[in-house]
Each structure stands twice: as structure tokens, then as C-alpha cells.
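Need a sequence for this fold. Nothing fancy.
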């Protein structure tokens, strides 16, 4: 899987395919893909950066889709719970999944200068964590990998 968070790409295609995948998944699973859930996913896909729940709520409020925090949090819980979005612990924020529908363990590369976030693949069983877990008889159920640094654009700015 490729890291797309720092690369230029067609946002409209990204939004359309992400929403279509979520819509199909929900239809097949008998889940409700409500207008608020759809809009929150569109917002996350359009931004390609981590957004706090209150940033999302401000957009929903401006569009007349809800003004109370539970509106945003319920939609985010649904999207995270079904793999369409991830929670970035370090930032207390959310980002659309770059690999929706794929079974994967994400790692988040967070630019400390501009706040951009890229999602990459991190398979814990193939790292020192996997080795340590096997040696101790521990079973890894969930990992959160978040690293902070400078994205390519911000690295160029510091050199200039």
C-alpha cells in the first residue's frame, strides 16, 4: 500500500471513491449510511489532514446538519468502527482511511510543521513488537503507530 498523504492527487476522485466504497459496504452489511455520516466522511476525505471533532461540527453546523457534539462524535464513531476513518491519538483528531476496505495496520506520519498526515502500512508482526509479543506469548490485538517529523514540502522550506 502506498502513502498518499504527502503526494498530490485528484481529491474529487478520492472523495467519490471513498464515499462509494462506504455506501456499498453499508448497503451490503445492512447499515445506515446517514446523510451526516456521509458528510463527515466527505469532509475527512476532502481535507486529507486530521480534523478535530469540533472542526467537523463547525462545518456540519454551518451546513445545517447538526449543532451538538454528539452529532459529530456518533458519525465519527461509526466511521472509525467500520474502518472508514482513523483516530489520530497524538492529535486527538480524525482522518479518512487511505486504504478503506483493506485489512491493514496503519501507521501515521504527522508533519509537525504543517499538520499534514500520511497513512502508511505498519505490520506489527513483522517488527520488533511482533518478535517481543511472540517471545512472551502475548497476542497483539491493536497497535497505534504515530510518528512526528517533517513532510517533503516542509523539509524543502527549512532548506531554503
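Here you go.
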Amino acid at each position: 500500500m502506498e502513502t498518499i498523504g504527502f503526494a498530490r492527487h485528484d481529491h474529487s476522485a478520492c472523495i467519490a471513491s471513498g464515499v462509494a466504497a462506504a455506501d456499498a459496504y453499508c448497503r451490503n452489511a445492512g447499515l445506515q449510511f446517514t446523510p451526516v455520516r456521509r458528510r463527515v466522511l466527505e469532509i475527512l476525505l476532502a481535507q486529507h489532514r486530521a480534523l478535530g471533532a469540533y472542526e467537523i461540527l463547525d462545518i456540519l453546523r454551518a451546513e445545517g446538519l447538526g449543532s451538538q457534539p454528539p452529532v459529530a462524535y456518533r458519525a465519527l464513531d461509526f466511521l472509525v468502527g467500520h474502518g472508514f476513518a482513523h483516530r489520530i491519538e497524538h492529535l486527538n483528531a480524525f482522518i479518512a482511511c487511505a486504504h478503506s476496505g483493506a485489512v491493514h495496520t496503519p501507521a501515521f506520519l504527522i508533519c509537525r510543521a504543517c499538520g499534514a498526515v500520511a497513512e502508511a502500512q505498519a505490520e506489527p508482526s513483522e517488527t520488533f513488537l511482533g518478535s517481543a509479543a511472540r517471545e512472551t506469548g502475548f497476542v497483539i490485538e491493536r497497535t497505534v503507530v504515530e510518528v512526528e517529523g517533517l513532510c517533503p514540502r516542509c523539509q524543502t522550506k527549512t532548506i531554503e
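For context: The first helix runs from residue 11 to 29.
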